[in-house]
């Protein structure tokens, strides 16, 4: 089996999504090119060859890394080498030029927090704080250097606190945008994108369309509050018996779609039979009797997402037609255009 399918995105330590990361990195690269290259050349000309060489090497490594990220290629060095060169050049500059070079550290601290993973940013800022303070000490009174150190510390702490607050808010907003508020299942907002990704990268995969049997009767007999509890409990059972790579979407009401990457229709059918048994055996409010019907379809080579889902829809209809509380496989020809137009599950 290949790598497990996971939710995308962008759900990483970074504060910016990929597109905005590229935009910001282009700006950073252009800004450093304008400032650091002339400074590096000037240092070489005035005899500070080591400092000038480090600044120019930093700029070269940064440009290479940004180019790799922008054009979706594998990076040459990762974050580490450009960061080491940048931190080293700042400490050296303060050691050589004193107070004149200390002002560059503040924008660097903030940029590091916004652009790099938190552990790397923390490490870099701790080294910057200690190194720049020690480098500045011979050039200033102790009181002045202490104020400088505290101002660096305050800048780093405030930047880290703000960025972490933004990341937490982003995580909450992302969850609300992707998840159904009642059940916690994924909503259909990103269903098309995930299905297309599975079609492209996981050719042996299946989907299952799922209906809670006679759910309207449960609502009519016991009320919508009980109906909501039943739906939440059914989803909870499904999550307990899903693989880590599976994706469960709520399409609306009592209708769900389960994506099973890297599983053929027979493995998917076994999963649905097993899950259906546990749903039927669970205890529900008001002693409601709950079962599910499902239709399973395996991805066919060069098949569209719409055809794939439609075949699962037809299989679900077969399960209902045969008495409900069943799992059916789609085994017929690809659906016609007329059949696709009648599917309520088209995305």
Automatic annotation (TrEMBL):
| Gene Ontology molecular function, alphabetical | diguanylate cyclase activity
Q: Name one GO cellular component term.
A: plasma membrane
A Pfam family reported for this protein in Swiss-Prot or TrEMBL: GGDEF
Q: Does the keyword Membrane apply?
A: yes
SUPFAM superfamilies registered for this protein in UniProt: Nucleotide cyclase
Highest taxon of source = Bacteria
* One GO-annotated biological process of the protein: cell adhesion involved in single-species biofilm formation
Span list, region Disordered: 327-347
- Enzyme Commission code(s) on record: 2.7.7.65
Question: What does the record give as cofactor?
Answer: Mg(2+)
Against CDD domains, the record matches this protein to:
GGDEF
Catalytic activity reported: 2 GTP = 3',3'-c-di-GMP + 2 diphosphate
Asked whether the UniProt record includes Transmembrane helix among its keywords, one would answer: yes
Keywords (A to Z) from UniProt? Membrane, Transmembrane, Transmembrane helix
Return the Basic and acidic residues bias intervals.
337-347
List the Gene3D superfamilies hit by this protein, alphabetically: 3.30.70.270
Q: Which InterPro entries match?
A: Diguanylate_Cyclase, GGDEF_dom, Nucleotide_cyclase, Rev_trsase/Diguanyl_cyclase
Domain GGDEF stretches = 203-332
The protein depicted here goes by the name diguanylate cyclase
Supply the source organism's classification.
Answer: Bacteria, Pseudomonadati, Pseudomonadota, Gammaproteobacteria, Vibrionales
